[in-house]
Automatic annotation (TrEMBL):
Native organism taxonomy: Bacteria, Bacillati, Actinomycetota, Actinomycetes, Propionibacteriales
Native source organism of the sequence: Nocardioides soli
Signal sequence extent: none
Keywords: Cytoplasm
Protein name as it appears in the record: Regulatory protein RecX
GO annotation terms (biological process): regulation of DNA repair
């Protein structure tokens, strides 16, 4: 066989490594992928991740209020304090609270009555608090005195006395082993902590001790 002189010389002629590549068909490693490439003919610098836009302060405040009111009534002052702790601007907080009042979601009158119904005399919660204790709690909740007074005036004095008697009878069961003077002191103290006046407290305790065959401290005097 004779070498064809008209055939062009191979590309690798004179370069051994190129010749070896040509004979062995060894593929060159592909270049590293350019993560900044936007197309076959254009590259741009990689952009840092964009921060999400700030949330609408009013929408955030509205969600806070709705979360606070879910399953539980709250006074306007309680809600205002919560918004302040979350750094909601006063102007936004006041406007939203006004709007919530307009639609009945915030109602201090209804809140006061609901609070008394759950914690006052004949309340289902078992607290049995008297007017004085309820008034203090409503004040701490931010309910103004006039609104609280109107709600408290609806308490039936008979319910208050009957609740005091029920509390004394229940507590008396745990005082079987103490003397009458000690029992009287503890029972009157218990009623005082729940807001009952001293006159009613001593009268109720005396009656309930007598009904149980015991004597109150004032009967010993």
């Amino acid at each position: 066989m004779t070498l064809d002189e008209d055939r062009p010389p191979p590309e690798w002629l004179g370069d051994v490594s190129t010749g070896v590549d040509a004979w062995t068909k060894r593929a060159a490693a592909p270049p590293p992928e350019d993560t900044t490439a936007q197309g076959p003919f254009e590259t741009v610098a990689a952009q840092p991740p964009q921060e999400p836009p700030d949330a609408d302060p009013e929408a955030v405040a509205r969600k806070i209020l709705l979360d606070q009111l879910t399953g539980q009534a709250r006074s306007r002052q309680e809600l205002a304090d919560k918004l302040a702790k979350k750094h909601v601007p006063d102007e936004i907080a006041g406007r939203l609270l006004d709007r919530f009042e307009e639609v009945g979601l915030v109602d201090d009158d209804a809140f006061a009555r609901s609070w008394i119904a759950s914690r006052g005399p004949a309340g289902a919660g078992g607290k049995g608090l008297a007017r004085r204790a309820l008034a203090q709690e409503l004040r701490r909740k931010g309910v103004d005195d006039e609104t609280a007074r109107e709600a408290l005036d609806e308490i039936d004095p008979t319910d208050e006395e009957e609740t005091a008697r029920a509390l004394v009878r229940k507590k008396l069961r745990s005082l079987q082993r103490v003397d009458d003077a000690t029992a009287t002191r503890r029972l009157v103290g218990m009623l005082a902590r729940k807001g009952y006046g001293s006159g009613m407290s001593f009268a109720v305790v005396r009656d309930e001790l007598a009904a149980a065959g015991r004597e109150s401290a004032d009967q010993h005097a």
